[in-house]
Amino acid sequence: MPQEMTALDSCLAIIASICLNGSAEIELVRGWPWSGARITAANVRIASTLGTDNRQVPDDSQMEKLCASGKCFRYSRHCSVIMEETHCKYYYASDMSPYLREIEITGPSMAVIEKSWSSIAFAPYPDLRIGFDRLTFDNGSDLPPIDRSRARR
């Protein structure tokens, strides 16, 4: 049974599925093999993938389904420390974009990342924003939650 979420109210801007409510530096990248945005805001760096030539089918058994305002999406996250920085990777898919997409938030510590959540949120649909503090399901793996039986070889 999907968990029902409450949507946040507003954003100053939505860039690559990231809702921004404060100052930010934004770099939009359109190219091959990747397109998306690199954002610096609230003392963290965010990389959000919107397009890639490596479309991967998600494995729903490794993801949690959340719903808000009648819209649902599936996601998982995993945080780890790499070279003295904390990296949180969020993988998601929705009816609007059924292939796996990725958002990575990097900061000097988990405390800094958690503090940034007051200025940023996840926007899986143009009219739906969910606080990153609500995205807590960790599938326990550094690997993307993809359906390996349907992966490209």
Summarize the structure.
The protein is mainly β.
Break the fold down into its secondary structure elements and pairings.
Blueprint: E1 3-4, E2 13-15, E3 18-20, E4 24-30, E5 34-41, E6 44-52, E7 64-68, E8 71-82, E9 85-94, E10 101-107, H1 110-116, E11 120-125, E12 128-130
Parallel strand pairs: 1-7
Antiparallel strand pairs: 2-3, 3-11, 4-5, 5-6, 6-10, 7-8, 8-9, 9-10, 11-12
How would you classify the quaternary structure?
single chain
> Helicity range of the residues?
under 10%
The general outline is globular
Termini gap: 33 Å
Low-confidence stretches: none
Q: Please indicate the count of domains.
A: 1
The major pleated sheet works out as:
8 strands, mixed
Series of secondary-structure elements, N-terminal to C-terminal: EEEEEEEEEEHEE
User: What is the count of DSSP helices, taking H or I runs of 4+ residues?
Assistant: 1
The whole-angstrom Rg is 15 Å
Total E-strand runs: 12
**What share of residues are in beta strands?**
over 45%
Strand order of the largest sheet: 1-7-8-9-10-6-5-4
Classification by helices and strands? mainly beta
Mean pLDDT score: 87
Describe this protein's structure.
It is a single chain. This protein is mostly beta strands. It has one domain (3-150). Helices cover 5% and strands 49% of the residues. It contains one helix and twelve strands; from the N terminus they run ββββββββββαββ. Strands 1-7-8-9-10-6-5-4 form an eight-stranded mixed β-sheet, covered by helices on one side. It has a four-stranded antiparallel β-sheet with strand order 2-3-11-12, with no helix packed on it. Strand 4 and strand 5 form a beta hairpin. The mean pLDDT is 87.
